[in-house]
Amino acid sequence: MSVVLDRLYHLHWVTPEAARSAQPYLGFYRQFLRAHGFKSLVNLRGRNADYGWWRSEKRAADALGIRHFDVRLSSRNIPSRSGLAALFDAFEAIETPVLFKCSGGQDRTGLASALYILTREGLGALARAEGQFAAWPYLHRPKKYQLWLKHFPAYAVGEAGVRPLSQWVREHYDPKDFARWLEAKGLAKSYFAFQAEVS
Q1: Against a cut of 0.90, is the pTM above it?
Q2: How much is the pLDDT for 1?
């Protein structure tokens, strides 16, 4: 059952202690999580208490004693500083093994996984981080307004310099600077809009 669920929910290990997946819409959520002994789950779709998928996810995590973090990211919109800061807050609070998940497990999970690799392994791991946007096995086939995603890790590494990535995000990251960087590379239409700041 575990192998079937892993394939069904597009599970891939990013590092020995971190994995990425799609939303387990079709059930067996507890079995899927229990099989890998996850201690934390980072939901990249944000808190959605009005939706059944979020309530089912939270119940499954609570029943298994898994720490549940809600981080709101978009695959089409350039992330806000507060949105990225929430992701780094989760990085610092999680217990491993951890699961990162969004809806399809292809785009937002790629960004979170790439930034996790850079946080855990250092900025020299850029090539490994960028590998999280591969068409195979991650099925990352970006649409027009998702092209910015795979460029963000290189931008972040270049801008962070010697600073820890988390510090750069919280103190210096500006979505409009990233937009200008994209424009200079001929990628002005690689995103739809800017993500709203979250409190």
Answers
A1: yes
A2: 63
